Amino acid sequence: MRTSDGVGSPGSAGVVKEADGLNRAMRLLALRDHSENELRRKLAAQGVSEAEIDSVIAHCYHYQWLDDGRFAERYIASRSRKGYGAQRIRQELGARGVARDVIQQALAECTVDWHAQARRTLERHFSLPLASDWATRAKVQRYLLYRGFFQEEIQDALRDLIR
Known about the structure:
Mean pLDDT: 88
Radius of gyration: 22 Å
Largest sheet: none
Function: Modulates RecA activity.
Pfam families: RecX_HTH1 (PF21982), RecX_HTH2 (PF02631), RecX_HTH3 (PF21981)
InterPro entries: RecX_HTH_1st, RecX_HTH_2nd, RecX_HTH_3rd, Regulatory_RecX, WH-like_DNA-bd_sf
CATH topology of the largest domain: Arc Repressor Mutant, subunit A
Subcellular location: Cytoplasm
Strand content: under 5%
GO biological process, one term: regulation of DNA repair
Structural class: mainly alpha
């Protein structure tokens, strides 16, 4: 019989004990940074009550274990290294529950050269030099748009790499 998650205790109905909610949050945050929304969703899925989630979130903020700004900065750095552009990263952060103003600030403070990143992404995915026909240009544009780059960044990369 497990008592740490309340299963098997009379009247518990599968509700997680208070200290266990914090332990679960600490385990999740030890693996990687999470946004507040992600952490709330994961704790709720594990059976932590809403009141306990609020308490755990407050505790995590107090000890600076949880910080949406820091999460956004690290997420931007990670995704940009993998060849994604600012538009895609902005959308992904929004889907993870990060506030728009936090996303805007993190993107404004990041040091990524998005034009160079578009070029590197293009170089990694396509064999160079690129043909100058319209079909190739369209294929490259679709790919870089999908990766989240702005049209200006795509045009600069194409100008540099098409023979």
